[in-house]
Design a protein that fits this description.
Layout (H helix, E strand, L loop, with lengths): L14 H23 L5 H8 L10 H6 L6 H14 L7 H5 L3 H4 L7 H10 L2 H4 L5
Helix pairs in contact: 4-7
């Protein structure tokens, strides 16, 4: 038999291919935020879509919330802070809130608890104040 040498060849995408993929992912994220701003999709539509399209997980929650009509920094930050309180999380710095992404909501280690708190916090006040029956 003898000694045989096996060479493993790994191919790396070219820089052009990588840059093209990056640009495409950025365009998809921008279109997702724009669809919320134009009322064609809800925040939860985009979050659901992110479970199948990983590039959407990089959208900042604050940006997605502020894309909704009538939402600004204070309202978006307030909702994220509310989720943190419900989940017993402590955000000491405002930058902690600003940096959170959709992936934070969908983190499997939380067993869906962050996502459930987020969905609950997004319910309109009129619906949230109705009795449970």
């Amino acid at each position: 038999m003898g000694n045989q040498t096996v060479q493993t060849v790994t191919t790396t995408p070219s820089l052009d291919t990588a840059n093209s993929a990056l640009g495409q992912a950025r365009r998809h994220r921008a279109l997702a935020v724009l669809s919320v701003a134009q009322g064609q999709a809800t925040v939860m539509d985009i979050v659901r879509q992110a479970t199948n399209e990983p590039y959407l997980k990089k959208i900042r929650l604050r940006q997605l919330l502020m894309a909704q009509e009538g939402w600004g920094e204070n309202r978006a930050d307030g909702l994220i802070t509310q989720i943190a309180r419900v989940r017993n999380l402590d955000f000491k710095e405002r930058s902690d809130i600003i940096g959170l992404r959709v992936s934070w909501l969908l983190d499997e280690r939380t067993g869906g608890r962050r996502l459930a708190a987020f969905a609950d916090a997004l319910l309109p006040t009129e619906v949230a104040n109705l009795p449970p029956w």
